[in-house]
From TrEMBL:
Entry keywords, A to Z: Coiled coil, Membrane, Transmembrane, Transmembrane helix
PANTHER family according to UniProt: P-HYDROXYBENZOIC ACID EFFLUX PUMP SUBUNIT AAEA (PTHR30367:SF12), P-HYDROXYBENZOIC ACID EFFLUX PUMP SUBUNIT AAEA-RELATED (PTHR30367)
InterPro entries membership: MFP_Efflux_Pump (IPR050393)
Protein name per UniProt: Biotin/lipoyl-binding protein
SUPFAM superfamilies, per the entry: HlyD-like secretion proteins (SSF111369)
Transmembrane segments: 40-61
Record organism: Parasedimentitalea maritima
Positions in coiled-coil regions: 175-231
């Protein structure tokens, strides 16, 4: 409508003025409702052709769409283990930070495992104390065995000296007994040293290994106990949270609720343009958008990227051949938009339904050398009619509350 009115100003209006003031034809006399087509045929025909040309050029070089949204992700609140809810620390629609506890499950078995692991650690510690006592006892045994060995060796040496001097007071049986006693005492010393080495092995190797195993079991039990407390992984808002104490939750059967991250979906929009715009829209193009949640606000945006595939061509392996005829609705070109200036889209909540225009800019081409006059004129026309599309966007935003609240009955 706006394009037709503008075209009429340079076609139908001059034609009417020429008929009225140059040819002297009067409204209601020569120019009537029945003679309107014949009298203004040149203006009407030119207006129709020019309007169609402008509309085609406008929508091709300045694409628009009503399929714009700011998608956001949600995080399902799931426990790592199944169980009944023992405590709840949050309420629905509450804002929480990462690491804040949400709920706690019953932890009787996990607490028992932790206590058993602590008891095993205490038992290993007691074994270490006993081993240290055994080590002191082994040292005392070595000292006693060495003393007995020294005494027996001295007696044997004294009797051997007397024998060598030819004394009649020494008997050979006594020397043999002392030799056997010395060998026995040497074996006792070796046994005492071996016992000490065994105790040292227990203190240095066996008991530390047992302690490490007990500590690992405690860590595993503590990890299972920690799984009973569900914490927030990201900062966000709790939604659809209706748990009560005693409810059963499971990572497979029943989630606890949904969490919307605070930084998800803000200041980023996804727009679906028709496939005719695939050759026009490029990263870096400037555009504008308006949303139903803020109908009187125009947000300048910039195209950050364009998806290089069209979703309607997506296929999944199955036992049925895909028929292109079943694509009743052609897919759109997905374009990612971000606000041109920081803070302009803060008042638009994620998930808002929006409409957007993207404008072709030929400023750099117009300053290129060797550009013909007709090319310059065409590029000037393309850039100029973008104003019409911008005006149309603002008109639709103004009429959006009327269309939504009055004409469509909410």
């Amino acid at each position: 409508m706006l394009e037709t009115m503008i075209c009429a100003l340079v076609t139908i209006l001059p034609d009417f003025l020429f008929r009225r003031f140059v040819q002297g034809k009067r409204v209601g006399q020569e120019i009537t409702l029945f003679t309107l087509w014949y009298e203004l045929r040149w203006g009407l025909t030119t207006c129709a052709i020019l309007a169609l040309t402008i509309i085609t050029t406008l929508f091709y070089f300045h694409p628009s769409t009503t399929s714009v949204a700011s998608y956001f992700r949600t995080v399902t609140i799931l426990p790592q283990v199944g169980g009944r809810v023992a405590e709840i620390y949050v309420v629905n629609n509450q804002k929480i930070v990462a690491g804040q506890p949400i709920l706690r499950l019953e932890d009787f078995s996990q607490q028992a495992q932790v206590q058993a692991a602590n008891a095993q650690i205490s038992e290993v510690q007691a074994s270490l104390n006993v081993a240290k006592t055994d080590l002191a006892e082994a040292d005392a045994g070595i000292a006693g065995a060495q003393a007995s060995l020294a005494q027996s060796a001295d007696d044997l040496q004294r009797n051997q000296i007397l024998r060598d001097e030819g004394s009649s007071a020494v008997r050979l049986t006594e020397i043999e007994r002392l030799e056997n006693l010395v060998a026995e005492r040497e074996a006792q010393v070796a046994a005492a040293r071996a016992h000490r080495e065994a105790v040292e092995y227990q203190i240095n190797e066996l008991i530390p290994a047992q302690m490490n195993s007990a500590l690992a079991q405690l860590d595993a039990a503590q990890a299972e106990l920690n799984k009973t407390i569900v914490e927030a992984g990201v900062t966000g808002t709790i939604e659809q949270f209706g748990l009560q104490v005693g409810d059963y939750v499971s990572p497979l059967l029943r989630p606890a609720g949904i969490m919307v991250p605070s930084n998800s979906g803000h200041s980023r929009f996804e727009a679906g343009f028709n496939q005719m715009a695939a050759q026009v829209i490029k990263p870096g193009m400037i555009g504008e958008l308006g949303c139903m949640t803020s109908p009187f606000t125009v947000v300048p945006v910039v195209v950050t990227s364009v998806q290089d595939v069209i979703p309607s061509g997506q296929i999944r392996p199955s036992d049925e051949l895909r028929d292109p005829q079943k694509n009743a609705t052609p897919g759109t070109v997905l374009v990612y938009l971000e606000p041109l200036y920081d803070g302009f889209a803060e008042k638009i909540p994620p998930g808002s339904n929006c409409l957007a225009n993207v404008y072709t800019d030929n400023h750099s081409k117009l300053h290129a050398e060797g550009l013909g006059i007709w090319n310059k004129a065409f590029l000037h026309v393309v850039d100029t009619i973008g104003v019409v599309h911008a005006a149309g966007l603002r008109l639709r935003l103004i009429l959006m509350p009327v269309n939504t609240l009055v004409l469509t009955g909410h």
